[in-house]
Amino acid sequence: MFFETTIDKRSKKAMIDLLAGHYRYNTMNGWNHSTSYAHCIKVNKLGLTSEQLNAAYDMLQTDFWNEIDEPIADFTSEMSGRYTIGTNGRSSGYLVLYKSEYELTGYKSYCRTCGQRNFKLVHDAAKSADHAFIEAYVFRNGGCWVDAIYLAEPAIAAIELSDEEKLSMVRSAKLACKDATIGNKCGACGTEGEHGRVNYTRPQKRLSVSGKNVDQNEDFSEWSLPELRNRVELVRRFDQACDEIRDNFIGLISTCKVVEEVVMIPKTVKRIECCHAS
Prior knowledge:
flat, alpha+beta, five-stranded antiparallel β-sheet
């Protein structure tokens, strides 16, 4: 353990000392004056050997973060999205505990080719040709007519179904067209069919992170023992996640090396092309 500390959770004083004495850092910029529990993860503060420190400075020149940040996702999941961990500081040299929550994105389908997301569902096609025709008719104008107008349309009136059956189809189509499209053509890349849009199987969520302080200037002496224990568990789990990130970084610099390579990047430029009279 580097960041995590042992604590006697039977002692109110010990728990208060841990919470009140824990290192803190800004949740956003210094101007918002909000702080939370934090740890400094600048490489010269990680307790590395001189050999590890040299390797760490080399690693800082690469995009290594995705290789070591899995503990953050685990922590956020354990907290059911109520808390997460983020980096802050001019050089992202601090890990900070943040309040957070999951929010629905509103996206209901996505393109299997380009990944473009859509706020509309892909409507399941009607099984019968007559039903499909009525649905397409309603979808075409957004279901804005009153029911009787659809029934009076010559193309729909000619369908050999009872008015009750046609009315039921019209009403279901009017409901569906508010949140769905007929066909699964992608509006971005134009792909349709088996490689076009498909509905998500579950509601899509994103994590919204708050810059509000966590326990800033809190008087823990007024907290009950259960409240203190719950907060200590949260902070110790945060400390543990920071330890796991540190361990991952040490493992990375111990087993991987930084190599330099030349990468050719295509570049589009504008040039002048003149037409000269012969």
